[in-house]
Model the fold of this input.
Amino acid sequence: MTSKINCPLCGNEAVQMRDRSEVYLINCPSCGDFKIIRECLEDLPAERKLLPQLMKVSAFTRYRTINKEPVATLCIGNPNGYSEGYSIQQIVDQFPSVPERKLKALQNLQGLSKYWGDAVSVERKDYVVFFPEVNEEQPSLMMMRTLVEEGLVTGEASS
Done:
């Protein structure tokens, strides 16, 4: 069964697919593809301490989608028993450092391009490809400007 929902990570419109299991497959234009167990989907709004951290989870799932890694299954608690299972807290705790984020952002841009040197248009929904810590424009613009200033990419970083 397929339905339109608001993405539990970013709030944008997404598509949810569910079979008879306790796992939902979410396809979000911003966060990419991820699975989420029913308990996590239901408990996430109540987990107030995690809500400001969800942009980190969004960056994690979008990176995996762009780079064709296996689809992650998100859990609130212990992810044992789930293929590619990760707890939300585990993803937040392992969020990469700034130098690692720079490399991951470059890998995302490469994954979004058709070939070396291909122009990639980045819209607001794509800001997560730059691994921001929060759901605000400034961290992504800062990463874009850094990549341009260091000569790693060409282009303009404007809001």
Observations:
- The mean pLDDT is 89.
- The chain has five helices and six strands.
- The radius of gyration is 16 Å.
